Amino acid sequence: MQTATSGDKVGIGDEIGPFTRETGFANWNRYAAVNYEFVPIHMDDEAGRAAGYPTAFGMGNLQWSYLHNALRAWMGDSGRIVSLSCQFRGANTKGMTVTARGVVTGVEKADGAVTATVDVWTEAADGSRLAPGKAVVRFG
Amino acid sequence: MTDSSISAAMRAAVGVELARQVSHPVSASDIRRWALAVYWPEPAPQLFVSEEYARRTVHRGIVAPEEFNPFAWSCAETWTRNPEAVSDPNDPDNTEIQAGVPGPGLTFQLNGGMSVEYGDRMRPGDVITGSRCLGPYTEREGRLGLMLFSTAEETWTNQSGRLVKRTVSTLIRY
């Protein structure tokens, strides 16, 4: 991954990430503790199965953080996330490896600032997308 | 197709303010803990944990990760549209309970996604005010039957009245 510490280096096709985590209760419990997100489907396999999944599953909000983590690592401290959106389409069940990635799809330069449009997503180990979305990042 | 879960009372409630809350002052420790949790098991970036490092950046001090939640655990002030009701985020009818109308009585709820516009970064000492309004309802057939989609728009401002973020979130219930 190239780190875009300044907007001048940003180009279409630049890759964001990977930010990868093996996921399970060790991640989810830590996140629950800071976001007060103690929901049975995230803490108990039986509750996950009752909801139609093979195990408990991770918070969408934590995948949301992983998307931010990947963007922050790429843009550096001087970049700014203007907007971010995603849809949670696949469950992050216990034991999955989740990776946040992205690719720059557009670059605009105006008034001394560079604005990049980025397709972002989290994916499972087989490449299936769990949470696809879009971001706008500004430099300068 | 199964009967709709969207009642006339639910449709009539679209657009109402559901809740407003004011955070305790954000602390450096709150920010540090959040960053440690979302980056675990790797260390959190210095911008979120080291004042000495953060002072040398464009931010001139520690800022919170953009997605940081200053309302977790407790708030300094909370206003709800329906103060008589017991609000439980784990209850799939919680949205309608807050709106003061009967809920659809579905069993499960999932976070469907969100769209956020960011403004000022949150910093230690900030006091954040959040206002949450009920958005429209839709329904769609899914793998697990008829799914109810509802949205909420939440606007956060800081103590200077400046926008911190505006979020449209989608809740899926079935």
TrEMBL record, chain A:
SUPFAM superfamilies, per database record: Thioesterase/thiol ester dehydrase-isomerase
Domain MaoC-like: 26-118
InterPro entries: HotDog_dom_sf, MaoC-like_dom
Pfam families from the UniProt entry: MaoC_dehydratas
Domain of life: Bacteria
Classification via Gene3D superfamilies: Hotdog Thioesterase (3.10.129.10)
Family label: Belongs to the enoyl-CoA hydratase/isomerase family.
Protein name as annotated: MaoC/PaaZ C-terminal domain-containing protein
